[in-house]
C-alpha cells in the first residue's frame, strides 16, 4: 500500500514500536505503572462522579429502570468532560502540554513537526478540532502529509469522551490505548504515505483551538460542545443499531439466521488469531471488531460489554484497545467534511483516499491491540 517505499522512515518506525513496547510493559508489568493507571482511573472516576451530580440535578426526577438509561448515565457525562477540556485549553495548560510533547515526538522519531503536533493534539481533541488546530498549515501539506494528519485524527479518540468509554469497558485498557494509538497511527501512516521534507519546510504554527475570551465563556463553549457531541453520539447510536437490526433481519431471512456480525467474525478471525486472541474466542471477538468498523466504537462497546464475563482477560484487553479509536466508516465523512471546510481542494483528496484511510487507521488499531496483548 505504500506510495513510496524507498522513503519510509524505518528509524522513526522502530523508535515508535520500541516506545509502544516500553509504555505497555511499564503500565501493565510494573508497580509504578499500575499505580499510575489506578491514579488516572481514580481521577476519571472522580470527574465522572462530579459530572453525575450535574446530570442528577437536571434529571433527578426522571424514573428509569434498574439498568438506567445509557443517554443519562454515560453520554451526558461527555458535557462535563468537554467543559474541563475547554477550560484547560483556555488556561493554556493543554496547548503547553501538546507543544512540548509534539516537539519531543518529532525529535525522537524524525517525523515532521506538523504531523507530530497533530498526533499529540488528536489524543485530547476530536477529529474535527484536531484538524482545525493546524488549518493554517494545510497549504503546505502534500498528499502524503495530508494522509498522515487525517490518519492520526481517525486513529485516536477525543479526551472528552474517554469518560464515557470508562463507564463501558476496563479502564486500564482504555488508558493504555491512548498513547498506543497515537504511535500506531503514525507508524502505519508513515509506511503508507512516507514524507521527506527539508528543515525549511518543517515549520509549524499551531492555532489555539479555543476562541473564548474569558474563563466563563470557555466553560459555556465546552458545555455546548459537549452537549452537541452527546446528541450526535446518541443520534448515531439510534441510526446504527436500528440499521444493524434491519440488516440482521434481512441476513437472517436470506441465510437462515446468519447475522452480519457473524460474517464479520469470519472475515476478521484470521487477523484476530495473529493479534493473539485465543482460537475459541476469535469469531466472537472478530464480530465485535467488525461491528466497530461498519458502525462505531460505542455500538461495539455496548455489545462487547455483555461478553466480557464469558471471554478471557487477553481477549478483553485486545478487543478493548482495538475499540478505543475512531476508525470506522462514518469517520471518513467527518474528516473529509472538516478538511473540505478548511481547503475544498484537499477535502476532495481526502474523500478520494477515504477507504485507504480507513484501512490504515484500522491496521493501526490492530497494531495497538496486538502490542497490548503481548503483555496480558
UniProtKB/TrEMBL annotation:
Chief location of this protein within or outside the cell: membrane
GO CC annotation: plasma membrane
All copies of domain Concentrative nucleoside transporter N-terminal, residue ranges: 1-61
Key words of the record: Cell membrane, Membrane, Transmembrane, Transmembrane helix
Transmembrane segments: 12-28, 69-91, 146-166, 172-192, 229-251, 263-283, 316-337, 357-375
Protein name per the record: NupC/NupG family nucleoside CNT transporter
Annotated localization: Cell membrane
Organism phylogeny: Bacteria, Bacillati, Bacillota, Bacilli, Bacillales
Domain Nucleoside transporter/FeoB GTPase Gate, residue spans: 71-168
Membrane topology type: Multi-pass membrane protein
Highest taxon in the source lineage: Bacteria
Pfam families with a match to the protein in the record: Gate, Nucleos_tra2_C, Nucleos_tra2_N
The keyword Transferase is assigned to this record: no
InterPro entries named in the record: C_nuclsd_transpt (IPR008276), CNT_C_dom (IPR011657), CNT_N_dom (IPR002668), Gate_dom (IPR011642)
Originating species: Halobacillus salinus
One of the record's GO molecular function terms: symporter activity
Similarity remark: Belongs to the concentrative nucleoside transporter (CNT) (TC 2.A.41) family.
Domain Concentrative nucleoside transporter C-terminal intervals: 173-373
Keyword presence, Cell membrane: yes
Amino acid at each position: 500500500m505504500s506510495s513510496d517505499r524507498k522513503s519510509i522512515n524505518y528509524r522513526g518506525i522502530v523508535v515508535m514500536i520500541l516506545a509502544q513496547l516500553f509504555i505497555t510493559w511499564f503500565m501493565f508489568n510494573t508497580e509504578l505503572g499500575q499505580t499510575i493507571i489506578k491514579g488516572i482511573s481514580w481521577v476519571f472516576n472522580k470527574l465522572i462522579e462530579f459530572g453525575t451530580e450535574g446530570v442528577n440535578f437536571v434529571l433527578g426526577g426522571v424514573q428509569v429502570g434498574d439498568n438506567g438509561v445509557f443517554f443519562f448515565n454515560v453520554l451526558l457525562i461527555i458535557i462535563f468532560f468537554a467543559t474541563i477540556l475547554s477550560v484547560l485549553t483556555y488556561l493554556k495548560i493543554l496547548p503547553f502540554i501538546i507543544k512540548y510533547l509534539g516537539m519531543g515526538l518529532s525529535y525522537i522519531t524524525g517525523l515532521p513537526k506538523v504531523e507530530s503536533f497533530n498526533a499529540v493534539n488528536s489524543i485530547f481533541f476530536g477529529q474535527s478540532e484536531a484538524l482545525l488546530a493546524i488549518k493554517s498549515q494545510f497549504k503546505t501539506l502534500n498528499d502524503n502529509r495530508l494522509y498522515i494528519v487525517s490518519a492520526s485524527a481517525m486513529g485516536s479518540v477525543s479526551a472528552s469522551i474517554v469518560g464515557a468509554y470508562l463507564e463501558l469497558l476496563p479502564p486500564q485498557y482504555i488508558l493504555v490505548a491512548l498513547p498506543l494509538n497515537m504511535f500506531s497511527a503514525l507508524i502505519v501512516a508513515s509506511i503508507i504515505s512516507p514524507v521527506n521534507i527539508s528543515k525549511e519546510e518543517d515549520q509549524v504554527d499551531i492555532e489555539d483551538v479555543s476562541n473564548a475570551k474569558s474563563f466563563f465563556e470557555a466553560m459555556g463553549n465546552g458545555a455546548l460542545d459537549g452537549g452537541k457531541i452527546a446528541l450526535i453520539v446518541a443520534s448515531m447510536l439510534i441510526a446504527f443499531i436500528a440499521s444493524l437490526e434491519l440488516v440482521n433481519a434481512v441476513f437472517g431471512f436470506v441465510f437462515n439466521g446468519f447475522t452480519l456480525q457473524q460474517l464479520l467474525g469470519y472475515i476478521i478471525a484470521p487477523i484476530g488469531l495473529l493479534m493473539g486472541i485465543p482460537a475459541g474466542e476469535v469469531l466472537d471477538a472478530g464480530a465485535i471488531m467488525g461491528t466497530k468498523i461498519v458502525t462505531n466504537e460505542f455500538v461495539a462497546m455496548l455489545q462487547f460489554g455483555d461478553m466480557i464475563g464469558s471471554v478471557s482477560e487477553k481477549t478483553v484487553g485486545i478487543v478493548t484497545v482495538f475499540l478505543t479509536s475512531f476508525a470506522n466508516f462514518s469517520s471518513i465523512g467527518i474528516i473529509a467534511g472538516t478538511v473540505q471546510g478548511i481547503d475544498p481542494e484537499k477535502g476532495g483528496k481526502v474523500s478520494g483516499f477515504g477507504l485507504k484511510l480507513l484501512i490504515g487507521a484500522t491496521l493501526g488499531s490492530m497494531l495497538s491491540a496486538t502490542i497490548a496483548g503481548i503483555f496480558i
